[in-house]
């Protein structure tokens, strides 16, 4: 009689998500610690908000990507309240400040690092879960707060070893709004066309002035010369409208625009330029009219950190690495919860993207990570002795473990240590115990020779990169092995 077929679950990772191993996690921790030190140097304090917020607290500011009405992961609680996973760290901050407004010192300066979630179509380099590291000042109406955020970003990238390989670009949404108003795209009825124009401007670094001209007009082919590839529909502006927008992106900037928004934005940019120059950051923080930033809640200065070194794109062409973070002023977000407006400005780093950039340059994750020293189990009845050795190593600050699998096969124990990345193993059989000694095998020097060893007899015959020491010298000799391979 045939056995019933067993229905087993299929192990599979959901699309748009990723598992992360020790090497990546260690490199990320190293980077986050550097960022944290700079943020705290500027007087920002740590804050953690939960992954889940009431959906209405996130407001209408969903990501305007492929699925703007489905940008968040949501579910209904048992009290019929809708909850959502946060899609950024700014909306939860706004809720926190509004909820504790009277108790907080203002301006309130905080930093937050954590996972955010986007219910979007996943693709290359586009994940549904990713980490951000934000810093925000809430309650400061002056653009000095915006200038300070930009200077702090410059110091952060310098601290990460990116000196001379980035620029912090600054623009102002009021300037953009002023230009759009001047070409007749003010008012709610033109919101869709305004967004198309802003997206066209945002492509300036990639497609140049002529590419933006096409996107402002009828549209642009992916390969303009051959009129082939994907076609992006344009904003439908006429020639005069397009030229007014394009003037903003060229030397001298837009002229002849006479409205309050444009004047206010231009004045704020001039003040930021003056402040960063006085503080010695003019070579790193620059006014750039092509900066747009996608989220609709920005109300004033907007900024972007762009890495300027070249990498190859998916077609092998040299391109700038590009943005690793951005932010801006959002004076209306906290005010949604209160009767009065609350000024705020902040910056968000894309942790994975910045880590990828640092790894590309060899500035992150280049130092080898030592696995644990593994104490082998040579005699089943001496587990307490082996645990004592492990405890001594751990007490000395050395990462260590005792082999907890089936100790019968010594070769398997060695293979386990190899897979764990152990720099060395500690061996003490009955002979070593009687002599008051231990054997230490340097696996980095002799790992390959251990693959064929299957029992104690073979082990005693072949001891590559292995030496004896007094049991009392265990910690000292293990440290010597670690130092030899720069794991000290």
Automatic annotation (TrEMBL):
Pfam families: HGTP_anticodon (PF03129), tRNA-synt_His (PF13393). Residues 29-372 form the Aminoacyl-transfer RNA synthetases class-II family profile domain. It catalyses: tRNA(His) + L-histidine + ATP = L-histidyl-tRNA(His) + AMP + diphosphate + H(+). CDD domains: HisRS-like_core (cd00773), HisRS_anticodon (cd00859). The keyword Methyltransferase does not apply. Its EC number is 6.1.1.21. It is found in: Cytoplasm. GO terms for molecular function: histidine-tRNA ligase activity. It comes from the Bacteria. SUPFAM superfamilies: Class II aaRS ABD-related, Class II aaRS and biotin synthetases. The keyword Lipoprotein does not apply. It is an enzyme of class 6 (ligase). Keywords: Aminoacyl-tRNA synthetase, ATP-binding, Cytoplasm, Ligase, Nucleotide-binding, Protein biosynthesis. Homodimer. Belongs to the class-II aminoacyl-tRNA synthetase family. This is Histidine--tRNA ligase. It comes from Ancylobacter crimeensis.
């Amino acid at each position: 009689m045939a056995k019933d077929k067993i229905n087993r679950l299929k192990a599979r990772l959901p699309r748009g998500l990723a598992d992360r191993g020790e090497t990546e996690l260690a490199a990320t921790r190293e980077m986050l610690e550097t960022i944290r030190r700079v943020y705290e140097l500027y007087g920002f304090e740590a804050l953690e908000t939960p992954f889940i917020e009431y959906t209405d607290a996130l407001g209408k500011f969903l990501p305007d990507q492929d699925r703007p009405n489905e940008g968040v992961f949501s579910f209904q609680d048992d009290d019929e309240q809708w909850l959502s996973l946060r899609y950024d760290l700014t909306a939860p901050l706004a809720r926190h400040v509004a909820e504790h407004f009277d108790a907080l010192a203002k301006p309130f300066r905080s930093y937050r690092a954590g996972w955010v979630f986007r219910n979007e179509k996943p693709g290359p380099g586009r994940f549904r879960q990713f980490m951000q590291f934000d810093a925000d000042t809430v309650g400061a109406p002056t653009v000095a707060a915006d200038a300070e955020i930009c200077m702090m970003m410059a110091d952060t990238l310098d601290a990460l070893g990116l000196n001379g390989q980035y620029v912090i670009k600054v623009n102002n949404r009021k300037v953009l709004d002023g230009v759009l108003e001047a070409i007749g795209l003010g008012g709610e009825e033109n919101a869709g066309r305004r967004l198309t124009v802003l997206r066209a401007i945002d492509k300036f670094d990639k497609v140049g002035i002529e590419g933006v001209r096409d996107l402002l007009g009828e549209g642009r082919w992916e390969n303009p010369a051959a009129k082939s590839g994907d076609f992006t529909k344009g904003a439908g502006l006429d020639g005069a409208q397009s030229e007014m927008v394009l003037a903003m992106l060229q030397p001298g900037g837009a002229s002849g625009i006479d409205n309050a928004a444009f004047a206010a934005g231009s004045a704020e940019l001039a003040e930021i330029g003056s402040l960063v120059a006085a503080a010695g950051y003019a070579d790193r923080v620059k006014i750039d009219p092509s900066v747009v930033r996608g989220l609709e809640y920005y109300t004033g200065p907007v900024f972007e950190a762009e890495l300027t070194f070249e990498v190859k794109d998916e077609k092998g062409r040299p391109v700038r690495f590009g943005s690793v973070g951005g932010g801006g002023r959002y004076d209306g977000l906290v005010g949604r919860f209160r009767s009065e407006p609350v000024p705020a400005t902040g910056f968000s780093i894309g942790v994975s993207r910045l880590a990828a950039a640092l790894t590309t340059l060899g500035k992150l994750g280049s130092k080898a990570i030592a696995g644990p020293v593994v104490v082998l189990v040579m005699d089943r009845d001496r587990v307490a002795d082996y645990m004592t050795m492990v405890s001594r190593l751990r007490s000395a600050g050395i990462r260590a473990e005792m082999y907890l699998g089936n100790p019968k096969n010594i070769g398997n124990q060695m293979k386990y240590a190899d897979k764990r990345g152990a720099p060395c193993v500690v061996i003490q059989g009955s002979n070593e115990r009687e002599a008051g000694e231990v054997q230490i095998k340097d696996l980095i020097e002799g790992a390959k020779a251990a693959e064929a060893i299957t029992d104690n007899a073979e082990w005693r015959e072949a001891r590559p990169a292995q030496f004896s020491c007094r049991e009392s010298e265990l910690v000292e000799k293990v440290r010597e092995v670690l130092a030899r391979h720069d794991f000290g």
